[in-house]
Predict the structure.
Amino acid sequence: MLTLAIALTLAATDPVTLIGTVRVVGPAQDRGVQVEGEGKTMAVTGELAEEVAQLQSFKVEVVGFPAKDALDVREYRIIDVGGGMKPFVGMLERTGDRLALRDGEADAIPLNIGARTLAKLLPMAGAKVWVAGTKLLTGELKVTKYGVLRKPRIEAQPVPQGE
Amino acid sequence: MRVPMLRMLVICAAGALATACGGDSDPAGGDDKPLTPPTPQRTAKLEFSTGDEQYLVTVWSSPGISEASPAADLIYELNTGSSANSTGLSVRRARATVTSANVSAWAARLAYEQGRRDGIERLIATMQAEGRTFTRVQALRAACACGDDQTCAPGSSACTNTVDLNFQGSKRSFTVAGNVTSVNGFKVTVLTDQPAQAEGLLSIADQFAAAAKTVAQVMGQDEHSGVLDRDDSGSITVVFTNNFGSLDSSIVGVFEFGDFLDEGQSGATHNRADILWARLPGASPSVTNASLVGTLAHEYQHLASFALRSEMGTPEAVRETLWLDEGLSHTMEDLTGWGGSTVDAYAAALESWDNAPFAGPNDGGSTGLRQRGRAYMLIRYLIDEAARSKGAINAASSQVLTAARELIAPLYKQKRRGFQHALFQSARSDGRLVEQLRAVYTSGNADAALANAAEQYLPVAASPRGNDQRIGFGAYETYVNARGQQVPFGGPTVDDSNDGGVSAPIEDSLIASGARFYLITGGEGTVTLTLSADENTDINIDAVKVK
């Protein structure tokens, strides 16, 4: 009996992995996120749920702990953003007038993007993004599509001190 | 599950849209048609003889074989290679300049509707976990013969003047204001907690009854019966009250799927009846008689969709992709002649044309509103195109509803969702999808004289409801919204600041399932435009001479 109880406790705390397509439900200010796998759909909760929500329609792998009817997601991986392509994920980093992607390893990857898209993305420096494209011989990544997973944190402005 | 043949025959014999009955068998192929990834069009030829010709070039994307589009920006380049013929080309980006969409007033309604879907998803998850399917149980109210100021008491055949119902977390007593039956035979039972306003409410209900009949017919139903009539009362119940609990005052009317559910199901309100909830007219400036009728027609599509898709037998089938479910409801407002309540959605879509997907993620707010407008534009075009082939001359022609039924009714019998429906897969592959985008620019546009008139929206007409509203879509029309205000649309017009020529490739990005217009003039001979973009995404280029 004790063995069974221990086994059930362990099972309840084992992380669960689910591979499937992201669907977003619920109101914007309190919306729900689901991953629809083969024959199984689970709601996704937790701090990363908002990032997973940005990946609607893409195939992902989410890992987390069951919490009631949902999965408290602790990590996730983007598996496919079309044609089996796995994107790069990292932070947008401004280098002069250009942008690079820092994925936590070694040097940031310089992004090869045109002027109009660059102008659109420069204010997003500091954002967590996914980017897909082709690695050039120059070491740059020529971006063909991208999405913002988490907007940049707005730095607090210094409060003027009174006289 | 298909409709039994006997029932189809009855419907076809009795229905005003009998000629559409062939459409119920889904000529587009339904769930049986295989999903084949489209081959994107990446080049377009422009032929110049004088150099004064003007081409409309559209860069556009679709969800391909997905039910909806991801949250993604697609980067592309347009170039003409080294052709000398492109010297002097003028490339100008066209943007829509319209109106003032009343976006803020829509926020609460959008949030409510997304919340409703959230509840449906939770219900489905629970049912899946428990291995249950939807089943109908004993009707709350049996059909009985009552006077016009009464209805059948819940659970009995006795007639009553009051009914207790649960709404927004509380049980309340409502008085029967009366019953109305439209000239086309659609019965509505009106309840309210303000019986002194009964006369006005019955007038609204009468107009809604006629509209609801149209909605039901377009959805392939000729009566509010069977699975639609949850309580077997022979009518739909509309409850007018200003006590909407915690719901925002800008919400005019709602369908609560919990009203349909059996006891014990997640989200059940215990009403077990087909009910639409509506504000009392005048509750706020946005609650007019016109907005009430239009909103009730919109909500009736949600009610009937929930009932019909539930009937397919598997909980998964209940879920229609939000962009399509809402797009259909907005289309119903227009088709019934009460589109004034949905004009804001068209306006928002045009105002944000360069950044408006039709099938993107549903994050509410202005994004959700513009997406609804884009989805409506697509569905309305497909209907107009089919109606024209039947002889329709404008958006109010009788052939429009026949065509609408042929196209839309099969959607409620298919397990596929969103863009995966055969209707949209076919429209993608046979060119109607891009024709629709061209039509947004060319329909009613005096500056597009060379455009093919047969590939445009049907001309907008006066609503047959005598409500001063307009029916149909035109990006250059002046509409009257449900608040009685004139809303002039300026359509897509040139933004000259984007005149960059093509001395270097034009680089830009496009939201997934969005579209962008360019107007190109000034070439010599043949100019070939090439679109370079992600190989695995359905992003395309199209060019058509318009002037």
